[in-house]
Write a structure and sequence with these properties.
Layout (H helix, E strand, L loop, with lengths): L1 H54 L38 E4 L4 E7 L2 E6 L3
Antiparallel strand pairs: 1-2, 2-3
Amino acid sequence: MVVSLKKTGLVLLVLFLLFGVLPIVEEIELRLRYEDIKKNLWLTRIVLGEYFDQCGNYPTTEEGLRLLLKPNSCYKNAILKEDALKNGHGIEFVYISDGKQFRLISLKKGGYLEFNNIK
């Protein structure tokens, strides 16, 4: 009888860990991923502002965000790493710009986050 109770207790513990803690861990992971997305969006937005200050325009859609990864003739900083151009799911941000304004979008399951400077 004691062995049976120990096995039952162990089974209940395993079930609790799988079904009780797992959703909490998944929720924490999703929140951390969301915070990474926001952090990367903000960082990219700040670097776009620096690029604009130095070059007088934003990179166009055709030039893309990769222009921020390496120094060039007008932009000397290039502090971003390639991972900063992706959201927490490894998907690159959508960047749309005519050189005067930009939209920076992170696509994600169930919606998106967006930063822009469009007035």
